[in-house]
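Q: I'm building a small set of examples for a reading group on sequence design. Run inverse folding on the following structure and report the sequence directly after it, with nothing in between.
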């Protein structure tokens, strides 16, 4: 039988414990930070109805840090969406969701403000690929972009 030892500092900092746990800090890291075992941290989480992160690696929607299938690809410099396991650029996803039509063959989605991370529908326009290529050629030639 375990003895319930009060952790005065931990109880005073329970909001901090909860906040750090929700940010992704592990139970073990919190125990080290507050100089205690994981048991009182688990107690605080239970008392405040905070669900425990599952043990073992979880994929997709079951992962504790799931962000709707959206992630940033540093190499491409843009956001990617994972839809049923298929990865597509987020600006394609936004365009298709908003317009309810597929992207036509030979066309591309252009960011009007040239910011590849700004995927608001008002910043996206469907252009034929040759027009898009000419537009970017003109921008590079005249504005050095």
């Amino acid at each position: 039988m375990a003895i319930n030892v009060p952790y005065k500092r931990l109880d005073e900092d329970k909001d901090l414990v909860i906040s750090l746990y929700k940010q992704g800090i592990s139970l073990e890291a919190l125990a080290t930070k507050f100089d205690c075992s994981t048991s009182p941290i688990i107690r605080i989480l239970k008392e405040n109805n905070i669900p425990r992160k599952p043990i073992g690696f979880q994929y997709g929607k079951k992962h504790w840090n799931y962000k709707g299938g959206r992630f940033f690809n540093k190499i491409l410099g843009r956001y990617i969406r994972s839809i049923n396991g298929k990865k597509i650029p987020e600006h394609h996803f936004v365009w298709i969701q908003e317009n309810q039509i597929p992207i036509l063959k030979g066309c591309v989605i252009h960011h009007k403000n040239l910011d590849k991370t700004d995927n608001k529908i008002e910043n996206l326009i469907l252009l034929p690929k040759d027009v898009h290529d000419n537009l970017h050629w003109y921008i590079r030639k005249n504005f050095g972009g």
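Residues 1-6 have pLDDT under 50 and may be disordered.
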